[in-house]
Known about the structure:
Layout: E1 9-13, E2 16-20, H1 23-30, E3 36-41, E4 50-51, E5 54-55, H2 61-78, E6 79-88, H3 94-101, E7 106-114, E8 130-137, E9 152-153, H4 155-158, E10 163-164, E11 171-172, E12 176-177, E13 182-184, H5 204-214, E14 220-224, H6 230-237, E15 241-246, H7 249-261, H8 265-269
Amino acid sequence: MKIPDVPPRKYQLGPATLYRGDVATVLERRIRPGSVDLIIADPPYNLGKRFGPLRERWPDDAAYAAWCREWLDLCVDRLTPHGSMYLMASTQGMPALDLYLRTRVHVLSRIVWCYDSSGVQAKRRFGSLYEPILHCVKDKRRYTFNADAIRVEARTGAVRRLIDHRKPIPAPYSASKVPGNVWSFPRVRYMMPEYRDHPTQKPEALVERMIRASSNPGDMVLDLFAGTFTASVVACRLGRRSVGVELHDGYVAIGRHRLREDAGPRTRARATDPRPPPGPA
């Protein structure tokens, strides 16, 4: 896949910065090393999907992995010493990226995002019902992880109300827990309230868990391959600052509109980009 060489264009909407441009170019020219607290990266999966005028397909897996390594190196350099990164990829592409990132950062968790059905129902194989996510940190002894902000119901204590008799004084099991590494969130489908016209849009609830867990209010969240800028919208809604980077003009237009309408009053009140967004290309 040939990435168009276009100069980055910047839009500022309150605490949210949007760049239309190539991720590697923006990282190298516009993002200072050591300035980002959390990166959420959702690159093309090399599966031949069409994003606006571009079809994402590299000559082979080696070429795709080499392209990823270029911008992943820039990502690692842009993280603060205590920064975190979540990387999404295909089941086919993730093993090579996992092996490479282990040489640069610490992989804390290998998360499975599972959903209720695949887009295309398989007839002659077991259909795909999950996508892998890596949770990486720069320093495994010092990083942000807000366990209480992401606790979920623990059925043993909250529903079954069982008693833990292993303790010196028997007590009920806890009614909540930190989620494990299997996350169940529905995919974003047509006509859902958060749906925008994008083939691989991620659910707000999925990225909200990442942002709540691995950043604090006021932190900088970098939303790479932003698509419809879901991570940027959720970050601003939660009181973080965001920088989103997307190559396709039509998706940048959607992101600008979403950040005005969906990210909360801080973004609307401080918007410095008054032009109405053009329609998707």
